[in-house]
Structures are given as structure tokens and as C-alpha cells.
Amino acid sequence: MLAATVTACSAHREETAGAATEEAAAATEEADALRDGTYVPGSFAAEGGSGKVKITCPEVTVQDKNATALICFSSPHYEWVKADGRQYEPENASEEGRTTSLFRIPVQLDEDMEITGLTTAMSEPHEVRYTIRVSLEQGASAEDADAGQDVTEAESAAAAQVTPESPAEPPVIEGLTLTKEKELHYAEAFDIYTYQSAEGAQYRLIDVHGSGRYLLFGEGAEAAPEDLPKDITVLGRTPDTIYVAATSSMALFDAAGSLDRVKLTGTDASGWYIDGPKKALESGKMVYAGKYSAPDYELLTSSDCDLAVESMMILHAPEVKEKIEELGIPVFIDTSSTESHPLGRTEWVRLYGVLTGQEERADAFFAAQEVAFEKTKQYEDTGLTVAFFSVSSSGNVIVRAADDYIPKMIGLAGGRYALEGLSGKTGTSASVRLTMEEFYNQASDADYLVYNATIEEPAADVAQLIEKEPLLTDFKAVKENHVWQVERNLYQSPDIAVQLIGDLHGMLTGEDPEKMVFLDPLK
Description:
By secondary structure, the protein is of the alpha/beta class. Helix content is 27%, strand content 27%.
């Protein structure tokens, strides 16, 4: 059946192409071409060398169909890089005390290419060969990424640089006694501890596993303890002027009652799909201070910014993080995307409550979400299967690994994930890239299709999806008019993510779509 369908689809495409005029073909080619702009890579791979130096690619610039990648070596000792026979000097060569080496080089997307770098870290200059591969597929334009689109592969590539496992024991701080550990219910990527000095001064330590430790002053604390471990960042008193570039964190600040402390944001008003930051920007209570990869440093300093909250995307731009810290602004990295339980990300509201002095309010908000979550345990198994997916501009299908929180939500809603047993193919990424034929084999009989509009542009109707990929016509869910779409506000709403479980249950049991928050049926 599949072979016949694919053959029929191929024949249809060839017939259509053969009938097209030269003008229409040119228009199609132009539409398929990548638009000029700056993009966050969907994936980046680098092999070669001793493995001691890490290479990352924070962004790719496309102009006149030519791609140029920003390549970052974690060592400051690279004097030049050769690519395609040409030599390129480091962009940050003139910076004093630099900790990285940055190069802009032309690249062929989705192809392996060899580059050579000259390092002076050894006793003598040494040329090192590397093979790199840059892909924009499943990435997004830099503006889209900053607007909070679910750039899962790009963020997961950054997640590979952190170790989210819980530490074996709380940190030992000389001169302080551990008095309490905050009880967490679902979150696994952080812990919060209370310490006390011999004089009775109180301190709170936020430990984001594998990423950073942050010390807050409590009652009676006036200064950081002596001999504080170097990996602990001193925040001091509750921060009052916060720059939030981690888009999904904003709703958690709002839920904790701390939105008034967020005076600077990395996303402008047009990029928000939730009301809190949009209204704050329109009223002037919040100001756009540049995207995460290109913040307005002057505005940060003139605004007396005392904390920058970044997503793991900042790990693709280490020079930006270092520059912010050079200005005396601590950088906090939100790793909530590593949480595997549906309520894991939501529980980060309790972290932000501690961070902003709104612990009781944040705890109360989370308790209410737990009550809502308990109700979902009453949902019975419907036996109906659900496929959650998006279709990229190149025709590949992006789905979620079976152990991701979205499939878990489908199960809690009384459904069954149609791609059960599917494991991640990109390291730590929750996203899995399939050909349409692979997706057909695993999901054509799914009872429901849910199109993920947090990655690609929302679809107006089912016909628009079929235009992108005609093979969808033969899917059971399409024939039975069971195609739904998750709205863009989902990624920016981790505070009420449990609502998606209720929406999915409503979809499976025929409830009124008007009562749903994140799901809409596609006609």
C-alpha cells in the first residue's frame, strides 16, 4: 500500500512539474530558497582534534543564497582557520583576555566540510583538521528563536553541555551549616538549600545541576562567606532589575508575582503570545533590550540590571555570556527544558519565587497546578492513538521521542502515543527527524494527528498541510477529520502546561474546542 501510494504521489509531482511553465518553476525555486537573515542552526557537528577543544556554531547568516557560519572554538589560541583554501582571521582577535576564538567562514549547508585551524596552545604552532556539518533544518531564524519558538534541537545541542543529574549531596560551604533542603515534587534539574552562619545569618543556595550555583542573602546576611567555592555565583539581595532572555521563563515570573522585577526582555512585543510581557512592554514597564545573542549592553548597564536570565541557547554564544558577566551582571541559565515530567518545567516557578522573594506565592501557585494534575489521573485509557508532529520546509517530519514530556501528556490524557518506542536520534534532543515515508509507516493509522505550530507556521486548515506533503491524504486521521493543531502560546506557557493534558483528553472524548487553551481543530 505504501509503495503504491508513494509511487502515485511521485508520479503526481512529476506530472505537475512537467506541466509548469518556466515562470512558475522559477517562482517555486525562489519560494523554496532560504530567505536572507540570521538563523540559529538546527544541528551542528564537529569531529577531529584531541577532543579537548569544543566547537560550537551559534548562528548562520544567509545572504544571496550563500551561508556564513560563526564558528566558536572554546580555546583562545586559534590564530586562523582555513576553509575551501582561504584563510580567515579570528573576529575577536583584538579583545584582551579573550577566552574563545571566533571565525566567520562560508559553509555548505547539510554537507560535511573540512576546515583547518592553527593553534598556538602547544609548544609550537600546530595545524588541526576538523570536519564540520551545519544544518538549518529544524532551526529557526534568530528572531523566531528569540520569540520563543520551540527550537528543540538547537537547545538540546546546548543541553549536551550541562549535566542535569542530581548531585550526590548538598554543597559544603565553609563557615555555614546546612539547615534545610526545599522539598521538590517533580523537578529534577535543580535543588534549593538553606544555610546559616554561626551568627545566625541566613543564605539560600540555588543549585542548577551541571550549570551553576547561585547564592542569595537572607535575613541577617550582609556579605558572602569567606572562601566561597569559585563555582558559586553571588547574587546578594533579591534582584530588582532582571533581563529575561529565556522566553519560557517569563510566564513563571508572572505566576510567581514577580513580573514587576523583569524590566528588560530579549523578545519584543511582536514576539509574545502571552499577555503579561506584551502588556508590560506596551505600557513601558518593560523594555526590549536586544535578543539573547545580541543584547544592548549599554541599556543593561544604564538600567542597573542585576541579573540576566538566559535559556541554554546562551551556550551557543559564550562570548555574550562572558561580556555580560564582565559588566558585573550575573548570568543565570534556565535548564528547565531538560525536565522530563510534564510538571517538571512548571515547578521552576518555585525556583523563581525564591529568587525574587515570592516563595509563598509561587508555592501556592504550583500547589494549584498539582491539584489540576491530580484530576488528570482520573482519565481512563481511550485506546486512541495520537501522533504529534510538524513538517519542515524541506519535507521532513519532526516528532518527539517516546520518553519526552509531550508523549507522556498524551498518555495521561487517556491516549497512546502513535510512535511508541521511538528513541531520540540526536543525542539529548527530544526531537526526532523522520522522512515522510518513515512517518507514514509509523503513524498513518493514528486516530488523531496534532500539528505542532510552535515550530513551524500555523496551518490554516488541513488542505494547507496536504499542500506541504500530499502523502498526508492517506492518513486515517485526515480521512476522519481528526486533525488538530497546538497553538504557539504553548511554549511560552510552562506555568499552565498541565492544561494541555486536559485539552488532549477533551480532543479524545469530543469536548467543546472552545473550552480548550492550547488545541484547535483544523477544518
